[in-house]
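Posting this for the archive.
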Amino acid sequence: MSHSATHPCGVDPLAQAVRRALGLTTAGAFLLCSPPLLAQQIEPTEALETVTIEAEALSIISEGTERYRVPLTSTATRLDLTPRETPQSVSTVTRAQIDDFNLNTTNDILESTPGVTVERLETDRTYYSARGFEISNFQVDGVRVPMPYNNVHGDVDTAIYDRVEVVRGATGLMSGSGNPAATVNFVRKRPTFEPQAAVSATVGSWDQRRLEADVAGPLDAQGRVRGRLVAAGMESDSYLDRLSRERGLLYGVVEADVTDSTLVTLGHTWQQNNTDGNMWGSLPLYDSAGNPTDYDVSTTSAPHWSFWDVETRRSFLEVQQELGERWSLKGTLTHLDMLSDTQLFYIYGVPDATTGRIADEQLTLSRYDRHLEQWVADLHAKGDVDAFGRTHQLVLGTDWSQSRNQQLSRYPTADFDAGGQGLPPLDDWNGRYPEPDAWVAFPGTDGDATVKERSFYGAAKLDLAERWTAVVGARLSWADTTGEQYGVSQASDHDRVLTPYAGLIYDVTDWASLYASYTEIFQPQTAIDRNGDYLDPVDGVSQEVGLKAELFDGAADASLALFRTEQNNVAQPAGTRPDGTAFFTGGDGITSEGVEATLAGELAPGWQASVGYTYLEIEDAEGNATNTYIPRHLVRATTSYRPASLDALKVGARLRWQDEIERDRDFADGKTRQGAYALVDLMASYDFSDSLTGSLNVNNVTDEKHLTSLKWDQAFYGAPRNVMLNLTWRY
């Protein structure tokens, strides 16, 4: 797996260009710099072809291939590691999977990811969980993206991404603060050395229409400046009454070889989501007597005048500098600006058991505006170090972020007259309810808080012996918050929080390894102790042991992991101070234990698959089962097959299965349950020529009726059987 060696590329300009184009350090470049390649006298056009061929061979970039795996990932540590060298559970959804199953939103992608649960609480707000905890850590191209509320507003389009990598467990080394659930890394498409273009049109159930265009290639005769432009537009009604969506996306990126050793990249993404008839909250799941409700799948709690519009603008600048033949330096600056404008309608409580009606007093109407602005900067150096007769990989870096979240909730004025009729049974409701013509803010219904984080981090892959490798690292963080949200102070200050990372890998054979890891993450908290001091941050700890293997002649990766994840020092009420304020002590939190098994890659010629099974046990400090809305058994499986006898045809299937979930009721005794269910999707595509491909997707082919989540005491039903037809032209 890792052996001592000297760098074979030397200062060869072509090799440096290849390494830079693929984002590889010396460790990754070993695979490129074979003597036959360096011995050739390559003309410039041939060099570009070589770059493309080698990139495809390595699958560093997943687009343009049909593979359901990638051989290198840096999400967990920023080191260039193979799956076997990463001492945590890792899964990747590649461009091939995205295209095969029309996974056009991040929700679609994460529903295909082993170990991840997508909590669709409303039509336009989604949470994610892994290993019993909310996922709060996200990256774009390996740079962390702070998430103030651990959720996503609107549908995030996937047209601009090459792949999505997910590392499960505590990931504080690269994420800083957060929960010990997972880190999700969205890897963007980049400019290409060769000209390429694609146009894709999709139509589907409920008047869905989507058009996508993607153009990339060199912008000058020498190929030193390259660009890419991606645009997508979507309009659709819905299986849910009154719901309709519009989405627009534009992504442009330019990269330039400023010198033979310097690469500068500049990019910008704009996305607009407009939703009409959206739900705020969801459907009541039982009535005032505790009887379960059973609505039609099309039923919604949204009036005809509700909307949720989100505009997102994200810009980034990257500078990569080669430092001799073995080291590189990379700096990234990202700016995010997100604006939300909503008009909302919420049902608080449950319908009357006798009449099915919902009273006006149980309804909340609101205008909600939000402005999130973020700056994130990262600077790190990565390269190789020779010590004790072996070669090791090292990364050293620092990052800084500032996130300001401003929000305002307004409500109908005092003279608003709803008519006193409330709502009829929701199955009979046509969405007609008086729309306020004026809104007013009240004290404590706004918020303005700023979170700043900075840190220094370092990690190393140490080649200890012939079959022993260690991956170690640490992060030193400072985090402080100022401001208020809805009348509650957010002020906190946590300095010099140390987050360790340690993993050990032993190569049992040339194709299988045993590993063990210990990882941490922290979450600042605003609770105070008896003396008025802030409690120490919540500690998230993950311990994991497992077996990883490269199967089918290295074409597939398999893993089996046993894990234990804990969240400790959670604030517990402990009394009242003399000034009347409550104080807290740190106590035990939640512990999850379980097993994960995954398999991804090419299982036979033409047969791609990505399969994962997760088993969880989640308990609170008293040993009682908790977070019971999270499935204890979870299966995610995606597969496709292209027969050699008819290689123009590809067929595939996707399976999402979970066991029964439940939650305690807020307004009645008893529990609400969602039985175990399986969602099966089928696909088929046919290459009419080298340039033209048509495909058919049928989702939820068994028309399974299911609730999208039980995280809250409300829910709505997932999509019934639906069909999509796609036609793609490529140059």
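The CA atoms of residues 468 and 506 lie 5 Å apart. The chain has seven helices and 37 strands.
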